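To close the chapter, one final illustration. This time we ask the reader to focus less on the individual chains and more on the assembly as a whole: which components sit near each other, and how the overall shape emerges from the parts.
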Amino acid sequence: EADIYQTPRYLVIGTGKKITLECSQTMGHDKMYWYQQDPGMELHLIHYSYGVNSTEKGDLSSESTVSRIRTEHFPLTLESARPSHTSQYLCASSPGQGESNQPQHFGDGTRLSIL
Amino acid sequence: KNQVEQSPQSLIILEGKNCTLQCNYTVSPFSNLRWYKQDTGRGPVSLTIMTFSENTKSNGRYTATLDADTKQSSLHITASQLSDSASYICVVSDRGSTLGRLYFGRGTQLTVWP
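The assembled structure is written out below.
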């Protein structure tokens, strides 16, 4: 059973629209992450957060932005979607203490298609 | 350059058979190595985590091994089931930052046939 939830699961939308992908976790984890994954490729970190009011960009450059106003909530926003944003977006979380040997817990992802 | 390479890229086996997936890495300094299972359309789920001092860890029918000297790991699946069909991802964490930077392999796509 999932303790980290992503909505929507699928989204097909036109170019230029503003999109917000939701991610919530009920485990009280301090650290949260957004990854981008294309078919057959590795996950790429695009954003992460150490806790409330903390956000950092990841390794892969992304035009998206994130916010962390509450511990449990880490939404990702695209102000103006383009076809190049088509991908799967995975949200994850992990405990703040002793994180190095703790697994990340992943949501089931949002598959985004921009027409 | 820190990298994680997995082989084979894909594998088809018959139900009930065993298989072994490989992971080679060049990540340094090393903190831990993780194996995840990702079902189609779902997020990855952790199978095992091994630190430098551990050379084997089991989770049910899954057994992971680690050779930190040669920087190789394997995931052995015993008595495969149809539900084992998934992508298996090797992930290596370094000790170079507070975040514990994760390096992901591209995964091995396993298909189990009846």
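The interface with chain B takes residues 2, 4, 31, 40-45, 48, 90, 92, 99-109, 111 of chain A (CB under 8 Å). Chain A has a mean pLDDT of 91. With these observations in hand, you are ready for the problems at the end of the chapter.
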